[in-house]
Amino acid sequence: MNALPVFPIVLPALTAAFLVLVLRHRLGAQRIVSVGATVLLLIVAIVLYGVAADGAPRPYLLGDWPAPFGIVLVLDRLSATMVLLTAALGLVIALAACGGWDARGRHFHPLFQFQLMGLMGAFLTGDVFNLFVFFEVMLIASYGLMLHGGGERRLKAGFQYVAINLIGSTLFLFAVGLIYAVTGTLNMADLAAKVPHVAAGDEALLKTGALLLFLVFALKAALVPLHWWLPRAYAAAPGPVAALFMLMTKVGAYAILRVFGLVFGESAGPLADVAAPWVLPAALVTLALGAAGVLASRTLSGLACFAVVWSMGLLLVAFGLFDAKGVGAGLYYLVHSTVAGAALFLLVDVLRAARGPAADRLVPTPTLPSMLSAGLFFAVAIAVAGMPPLSGFLGKLLILDASRNVPAMAWIWTIVLATSLVVILGFARAGSALFWKTAPSEAAAADDAASGREEKVRERPLLPVAACATLVAGTALLTVFAGPVTAALDTTARQALDTARYVEAVLPAAAAKKSVTLSRR
Amino acid sequence: MELLVASGIGLLTAVGVYLVLRRHSFPVIVGTVFLSYAVNLFLFAMGRLTVDRPPIVDPAAAGYTDPLPQALVLTAIVISFGMTALIVVLALRGFLESGDDRVDRTAPKEDRTAAGRDDDVVFP
C-alpha cells in the first residue's frame, strides 16, 4: 500500500516494454494488452484518489533514500486528481485509437503507454530535475506519436515541434542549474523550505532561474507569446494523439501551479509570487489571440487548435490568481477543458475522414455529413465555447466569480466575455459551413468520384465516435455533479497552495528540527 | 578559470542561438547541439569549479567536488544525444519526402512553385 504512488509510473513502463518486445507484430494482442493495462491504470488511479482524499500529502521515497537526498514521489490531492484524469482520458483515447489509427504505423500502443508513463511521472514527482526527466519521457513518446502515420506535412510540423521542445529542454536545464547553484537542492519541499532564506546577493540569480523555469512551463502550456508551435503541431498530429496531447498542455499549467504555487508561492520570502505579475497578463493576451485564431481559421483542425490556445488562456487566468478560490475554479475548468478538447479533436478526425477530398477545410461539400456527427459537433462546440448546459459554462462562471475581488477584475471580465462571444461566432461559422450549406452540384460529381474511391480505404469510425460521445457525456456528468466536484477541487486547491504542510509531509526531520528551534526561542 | 569557463559557455550559447534562428534545418540542428553543449558545461559549473577533487568518498582526499551536477550532466548528455539523433533522422526524412529542408513552411511543393516564390535551390 505504501508503494502505491509508484504504480502509475511502473505499470505503463512495463506494459510498453512488454508490447514492444513480445507483441511486436501482433496488433490484435497489442490492443488487448494496451487497453487492459489502461483499465488497470484507471483502477490504480481511483484507489490513489481515495488514498489521497484524506488530505495528507504522502511521499514515496524511491530506494528508501531520505527525502532531500533521494528522489521522491509525492501523492497529494492535486497529483491524484491529475493522475485520475489522465488515466480516464487515456482509456477513452486508447479505445478510440483501436478504431484504425493504431494500424496506420508501427508501435502506436508502446508509444502511447510511454506517453502515459511520462505524464503520470510529471504529475507525481516531487523533484524538479525528476520533473525534467519525466517531461523528456513524455516528449520523446509524443514525438513518435505525432509522426505516427508519416507524411510530408506531419514530418515538417514534427521537425518544428521537436526543435522547439529541444530548445525548451535546454532552457529547463539552465533554470535547474541556476536554482541548484543558489539553493543546493532540487527537491521541491526542500526548495520551498530554503527559498525564503536565500542570501540577498543570490536573490537575482534565483529569480532568473525561477523565471526561466516559468518560461519553459509557459511554452508547454502554450501561453502567448510561446503558443505558435501548438496550432501547427496539433493540427498535423493524428486525431487520438491530438486528443492525448490535451494533457500535455495541462502538464505545463500543472507545473506552473505546482512550482509557483508551492516553491515560489506566498511564503517564499523575497521571491514570493515571482511569476504572478506575468501569468495573468500573458493569459489575457492568450485569450484574445486564441479567440482571434478561432474566428480566422480556414480549417477545422486549425479552429480546434486555437480553441485549445483560448482555453489554456482561460485556465491560466484562473491559476494566475494564485488563491484557493481561483485555483479551485481553474482545476474545474482544467478537467472540463481537457475532456472537451479531446472530444473536439476526436470529432475533427472523424469528420476529416468522412468528408473525403474536402478534408477539414471549412468549405461546403456536396453531401452533408451525418446527423450524428452534426449533433456531436453541436454538443462539443457548446462544451468548448463554454455555453450552458455543459460544464464549460460552469467553469467559466466559477473563474469569473473567483476574479470578482481582484484589481484586474474589469480586464478579466471584459476579455473573457468578449472572447467567449468571438469563439461562439467562430464555432457557429464553422458549423454552418460544415453542416448547413452544400456545394454546387457541378463540383459534386468530381468530388463524389473522388470520395467514392476513398470509400474503400476508410475505416469504420464507430469507436472514435463512441469515444467522442463518451467524452461529451463526461462533460455533462461534470455539470450534473458540479457540487461535489467543485467542493473536492476547492479542498484540492487549498492543499496545493499549503506549502508548510507539503514540506512537513515530505521532510518530517527538517520540519521537526525547525519546530525545536522555534520552541527554544 | 572562471572567466574562461563563463565566456566559453557564453560563446557556445550565442553560436547556438544564432544557428537555431536560421531557416534551414541543418543549421538548426547544429544550433541545438551547441546549446546542449553550453547547458552541459553550465550545469557542470553549477557545483562550483574545483580542480583535482574527487566526487566520491576517498579517504585520501583533501576535499570533494559536488557530485550531483555530474549526475545531472550525465542524464542531460544522454537525453540530448538521443534527441539529436532523432531530429537528424526527422530532418532527413522531411528533406527526402519534400525536397527542401526549409524549417519555416509546410505547404506542399506544387503550391510554392505555382506561387513563384521559391527563391531557394530545390534539390531534385
What does this entry look like structurally?
In chain A, 74% of the residues lie in helices and 2% in strands. With 521 residues, chain A is mostly helical. Chain A has a domain at 275-442 and 455-480. A two-stranded antiparallel ribbon of chain A has the order 1-2. In chain A, helix 2 (27-52) runs antiparallel to helix 3 and helix 12 packs antiparallel against helix 16 (409-435). The longest helix of chain A is centred in the N-terminal third of the chain and has 32 residues, at 152-183. By secondary structure, chain B is mostly helical. The longest helix of chain B has 32 residues, at 67-98. Chain B is elongated and about 60 Å long. The interface between A and B is medium-sized, with 30 and 35 residues.
Provide key terms for this protein.
heterodimer; A: 521 residues; mainly alpha; two-stranded antiparallel ribbon; 21 helices; 2 strands; B: 124 residues; disordered C terminus
Describe the protein's topology:
The complex is a heterodimer of chains A (521) and B (124).
Chain A: H1 7-21, H2 27-52, E1 58-61, E2 72-75, H3 77-97, H4 108-124, H5 128-146, H6 152-183, H7 188-194, H8 203-220, H9 229-236, H10 239-263, H11 276-296, H12 300-319, H13 324-354, H14 371-385, H15 391-402, H16 409-435, H17 441-457, H18 462-480, H19 482-496, H20 499-506, H21 508-520
Antiparallel strand pairs in A: 1-2
Helix pairs in contact in A: 1-2, 1-4, 2-3, 3-4, 3-10, 3-13, 3-18, 4-5, 5-6, 5-10, 6-8, 6-9, 7-20, 8-10, 9-12, 10-12, 10-13, 11-12, 11-16, 12-13, 12-16, 13-14, 13-15, 13-18, 13-19, 14-16, 14-18, 20-21
Chain B: H1 2-20, H2 25-45, H3 67-98, H4 109-115
